[in-house]
Amino acid sequence: MSRPTVHQKKAARSTPRDQTATTAQNSPFVVLLGKLRRFWVESVRAIAWIALDSIIAGFPMQNRCAGGVCIVRLDAIGDFILWLESAKRLRTHFSGKGMKLTLVANATWAAWARELDLADEIWALDPLRFNKDWNYRASWVRRARSAGFSTVIQPTYSRWTTAGDSFVRVTHAAVRIGSVGDNSNTLSWLKKWADAWYTQLIPHGGEDCMELVRNAHFMRGIGFSDFRARVPHLPVDAANLSAFQLPCPYAVLVPGGSWSGKAWPVTSFTEIGRRLLVSGLQLVIVGGAPDRRCTDELLHELDGKAINLTGRTSLAALAAILHHAQIVVSNDTGSAHIAAAVGASVVCILGGGHYGRFLPYQIEESFDKRPLPIAVSKTLACFGCNWTCIYNVEVNQPVKCIKEIMVEDVWQQIRMKLSLKAQSVETFTSTAGV
Fold first, then answer.
1. Interatomic CA distance for residues 433 and 332, integer angstroms
2. Hey, which end of the chain has fewer CB within 10 Å, N or C?
3. Is the pLDDT of residue 207 over 70?
4. Domain-located, residue 428
5. Cα separation of 167 and 165, whole Å?
């Protein structure tokens, strides 16, 4: 999905350049000046980083694992989950060939990937720090250069020139494979430059392609002709629940998010929470540490009638909590994708910035009866804006297409999900009693 400063709003992101709201009060001249300034700042910064990489990577270094395969995946948690089935297939393939596989992963989910045994070695790289800290970057360039990989694969569609692309470049691997990609996370001229760093670029299936299908296109493009897009499957360890002693049955609310513009108002989540309480469900609130302000506000509005686990769960524990929920109501965050991957019933509040790319899901095959996440949206003519909003957006407030999603529309989907789940339980009970 993306450059961490765009999609890793999920992990302490500053407002990314392609998600900065364009306010109606800005004159065209001011907007033009802002774009020019951004162009020059990003260009100069990129040239400086790439020059540093060239100097460091140019020194003679001793190879220590010549012939190994490296996969570079530096985007956020949600992107990782959508790519999970591809990761499993690549792991099986290279293990079967006796080839050592190294996964260079975003540090926010690298430990979880290690638990899932997705590679022989997993290197945890912080892409934000990689683009801010000279010493940190230099150490990673030396490590990449000295590894001696024979093949490097970066499946990310929205590539980031000074992160994933640069890492691929400094490996000096004989085979360097990437996606044709788009320009959403980089300047057009930088992408053209970075394209030349690859020996092969794989077509992506079209700009309107859903990410699961796009990942399948990539896999087929590198030789896995039978690979098909399906809902990712995450294993769940019930032992991860023992520390929390959650009341059952419960619903999970995910009111936070990487960027305030994508977050449904807390007042709306509050109304949904109250209705869930009336329906007999207990409430659990989850989120990352940066979500503390909005989750605390939600807990206050609910008069304390919820368990707030914000910042207290590992990713594996979060998966277990979501798996056992009767319903998960979430903003467009990584938690929604984790919930879908563990088979939970998910209702997601979805705006138009990337509508159709990450949600709603599109799949090419299905091996089980796990429900697809339901996306609730307010359709506007400006959908597909890449989060460059054409409307006036106040600081720390949602954009128009999020704010105008009605509680009744979300509640209708929740009721339908809960009804289907109840029917499924009744059918199972009836069958078991025969």
1. 40
2. C
3. yes
4. yes
5. 5
Between 174 and 33, the more confident residue is 174
Residue 60: which pLDDT band, with cuts at 50, 70 and 90?
low
**Within a domain: residue 158?**
yes
- Whether 386 and 351 map to the same domain: the answer is yes
DSSP state of 162: I
Task: Give the residue-averaged pLDDT of 236-250.
Answer: 90
- Indicate whether 78 and 196 sit together in one domain: yes
SS (H, E, C) 29-74: HHHHHHHHHHHHHHHHHHHHHHHHHHHHHCCCCCCCCCCCEEEEEC
Q: Which of the pair, 363 or 22, is modelled with greater confidence? A: 363
- Is 48 contained in some domain? no
User: Do 91 and 217 reside in the same domain of the chain?
Assistant: yes
Query: Which residue do the tokens 């794989």 mark?
Result: 202
Cα dihedral across residues 1, 285, 291, 412: positive or negative: positive
CA–CA distance, 432 with 129 (Å, rounded to integer):
54
Helix (H, G, I), strand (E, B) or coil at 276: helix
Task: List the CATH number of the domain containing 256.
Answer: 3.40.50.2000
Same domain, 178 and 258: no
pTM score: 0.89
In this structure, are 404 and 256 located in the same domain?
Answer: yes
Antiparallel, parallel or unpaired: β 282-285 and 307-308: parallel
Query: Cα(389)–Cα(428) distance, rounded to whole angstroms?
Result: 47
pLDDT-based confidence at residue 290 (cuts at 50, 70, 90): very high
Mean pLDDT for the stretch of residues 70-80: 97
Do residues 422 and 276 share a domain? yes
Q: Is residue 10 part of a domain?
A: no
